[in-house]
Amino acid sequence: MRVAIIGAGVAGLASARRCLENDFEPIVYERSKIVGGTWVYEERTGLDEFGLPIHTSMYKNLMTNLPKELMDFPNFPYKGLDDVSYLKWWQVQEYIEKFTEHFGLNKHIQFCTLVTAIERLTNNWQVTVEDLKTKTLKTEYFDAVMVCNGHNAMPFTPDIPGKDDFEGVQIHSHDYRIPEHFTNMNVLIIGSGPSGIDICLDVSKVANQVNVNYFVLNKLFMLST
């Protein structure tokens, strides 16, 4: 069975491993130059060198909010980190790269390749991809398709009355990288999910003041540092 896998992040790599274990032929299409997906740290925001939106939301000081014991691939534990449970992003990225090498997945990955179309035919799937370096298109046929391109890459910004009149800095957490950009500023963070609270703690080291607005049962609350 020939299987197309879209994305070489954690889900795509785990899928490729299982395909190989079952004697399937996986081909992984990854639009960037490296495995890891959302765990790759990229200083740039906006568009990449191919004119595509930067995929990752990773920021420089991120640490996991789950212990590594709940984040490893089956039968492939973290090594050399017995004394810590909560890891820095680069430790997770190194682990993903070691997993890829250990199971020989790199030879099944086509990097800098964008899937532009998928069509269900009578007995198989037609997949069209673009080589981002040469700008050439090609069509391949598969027995199955696994979509593993993640769900954190497309930021959603709510329509907040008055936001277009605000003259200060506005960014989505997807584009947050380092706290130093907010040195001595008064910062408002909207949302108290994991990203909001973590970025609040990160920015509070350098900002003048940080406020976090959040809603519970349609009531507005605020936390201040």
Automatic annotation (TrEMBL):
> NADP: is it a keyword of this entry?
yes
Answer yes or no on keyword Oxidoreductase: yes
Enzyme Commission (EC) number = 1.-.-.-
Query: What UniProt keywords are attached to this protein's entry?
Result: FAD, Flavoprotein, Monooxygenase, NADP, Oxidoreductase
According to the UniProt entry, its GO molecular function terms are:
flavin adenine dinucleotide binding; N,N-dimethylaniline monooxygenase activity; NADP binding
Source domain of life is Eukaryota
Which cofactor is essential here?
Answer: FAD
> What family does the Swiss-Prot or TrEMBL record give for this protein?
Belongs to the FMO family.
What is the protein name stated in its UniProt record?
Flavin-containing monooxygenase
Q: Native species of this protein? A: Melanaphis sacchari
